[in-house]
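Page 37, continued from 36.
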């Protein structure tokens, strides 16, 4: 295989695509802002972490040694508010939702980061960074509350392009008249009754939201690292404030590439918990296979907004079924020949197809991670497998066995790069897809088989109107019938759109 094209990524700081050059040759340091753990994660979270999982996987495919850090915010106003509503300890509540989040990530086939730090475990690092910022004259203490002085940050707004006057004072808290500038933000909050707190030089309290990521990224990756990622909603004020406070603590602080994913929209409005117009990951995966959700998200470029629709989820599910059904048929056909030694040259046409497929994938992915094109690029090798399988049923020749074996391996390898190769077996994924299709249809397996039996009787009686009606009714709820010599079976409605 030829060497992949140089990876280019869009840098939010410079507003342009740039060739990726890590600070240390062969190694990549990457920090992605994680969830605030106070509820089940929604599809917007899935969008972000699938996007950065794809980046993580592709960097590893390119041969880099990647240190990937994704944090948990487990100390926050929202967590405290929710815990009070449920009469639960805030740290206990957030710990529970951290676990739920990790379960969702496993379902979505997101590989674990190198480090998953939690704020509550890094108070020493946070307090130490705040102390440095104060010592450098960039923050001030007011009765146990510590505020960052944005006036001391000459490049404030360098990431977002916003003016200092545009800053939304008190992004997560009420405006505080004790601030020297309304745009100043909290680094440390003094303890309030019935809230968790930690001891600090400024009294008992807890950290502000922004300081958490600066302290944890510096602890795991150093003051200067390669990639910092998150959703576009974090550009301002969160990442802007991170830059300001990190540079205030250490003048050498630097991130080479800032990357941000687009929103998930519902009716052209950003989907989020605060707006109450969101779907949790669990709500979607109760009806659709998690990998169908992953494909749905990947069929839009990571920087563009995703418009949520059941129709597009259905298409993604159909695409996934076609992929796994093809692999299953290939596995079944090749099973008697797995141990055979095939000293046979790969057919030239198949060799060329594989080379073209891999080149297209690498070109799409190296151009700022165009997963939307990469997902579509699977169709050609899958069609080639199905074409070879049709011939294989008639004539089992060694070159054909070799062709199918190499095509199967290539498809699975690329699926793995994109996180589409399940940890379950191919057969298990097909059964999972059938189970989800039944859930969406509102029918049980027994009810479907009963309808098939009724249709069989109708066909035997030459009552084709009834036969067609049953087929159409099942098709309408997403189930397709296959008439085979051995009888009629059903599959989730499937096409190769």
């Amino acid at each position: 295989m030829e060497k992949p094209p140089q990876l280019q990524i869009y840098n939010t700081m410079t507003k342009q695509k740039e060739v990726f050059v890590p600070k240390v040759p062969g190694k990549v340091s990457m920090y992605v802002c994680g969830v605030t753990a106070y509820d089940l994660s929604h599809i917007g979270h899935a969008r972000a972490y699938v996007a950065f999982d794809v980046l993580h996987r592709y960097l590893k495919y390119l041969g880099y040694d990647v240190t990937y850090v994704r944090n948990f915010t487990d100390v926050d106003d929202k967590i405290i508010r929710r815990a009070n509503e449920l009469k639960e300890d805030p740290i206990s509540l957030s710990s529970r939702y951290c676990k739920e989040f990790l379960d969702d990530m496993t379902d979505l086939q997101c590989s674990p980061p190198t480090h998953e730090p939690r704020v509550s475990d890094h108070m020493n690092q946070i307090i130490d960074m705040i102390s440095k910022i104060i010592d450098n004259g960039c923050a001030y203490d007011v009765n146990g509350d510590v505020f960052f002085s944005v006036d001391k940050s000459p490049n404030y707004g360098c990431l977002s392009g916003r003016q200092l006057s545009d800053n939304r004072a008190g992004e997560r808290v009420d405006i505080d008249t004790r601030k020297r500038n309304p745009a100043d933000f909290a680094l440390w909050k003094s303890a309030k009754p019935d809230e968790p707190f930690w001891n600090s030089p400024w009294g008992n309290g807890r950290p502000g939201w922004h300081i958490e990521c600066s302290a944890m990224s510096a602890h795991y990756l150093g003051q200067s690292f390669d990639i910092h990622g998150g959703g576009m909603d974090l550009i301002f004020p969160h990442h802007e404030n991170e830059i300001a406070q990190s540079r205030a603590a250490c003048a050498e602080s630097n991130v080479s590439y800032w990357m941000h994913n687009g929103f998930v929209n519902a009716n052209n409005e950003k989907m989020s918990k605060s707006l109450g117009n969101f779907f949790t990951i669990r709500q979607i995966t109760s009806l659709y296979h998690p990998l169908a959700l992953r494909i749905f998200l990947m069929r839009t470029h990571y920087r563009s907004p995703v418009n949520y629709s059941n129709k597009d989820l259905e298409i993604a599910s159909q695409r996934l079924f076609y992929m796994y059904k093809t692999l299953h048929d290939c596995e079944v056909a090749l099973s008697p020949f797995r141990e055979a030694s095939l000293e046979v040259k790969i057919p030239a046409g198949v060799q060329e197809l594989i080379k073209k497929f891999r080149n297209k994938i690498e070109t799409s992915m190296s151009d700022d991670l165009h997963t939307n094109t990469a997902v579509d690029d699977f169709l050609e090798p899958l069609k080639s497998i199905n074409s070879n399988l049709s011939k294989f049923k008639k004539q089992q020749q060694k070159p054909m066995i070799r062709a199918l074996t190499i095509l199967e391996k290539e498809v699975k390898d690329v699926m793995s790069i994109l996180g589409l190769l399940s940890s379950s077996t191919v057969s298990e994924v097909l059964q999972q897809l059938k189970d989800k299709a039944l859930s969406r249809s509102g029918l049980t397996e027994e009810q479907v088989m009963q309808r098939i039996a009724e249709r069989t009787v109708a066909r035997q009686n030459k009552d084709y109107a009834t036969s067609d009606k049953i087929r159409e009714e099942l098709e309408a709820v997403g189930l397709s019938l296959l008439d085979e010599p051995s009888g009629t079976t059903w599959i989730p409605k499937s096409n190769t759109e």
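Residues 152 and 497 are 55 Å apart (CA to CA). Flag for discussion at group meeting. The mean pLDDT is 94.
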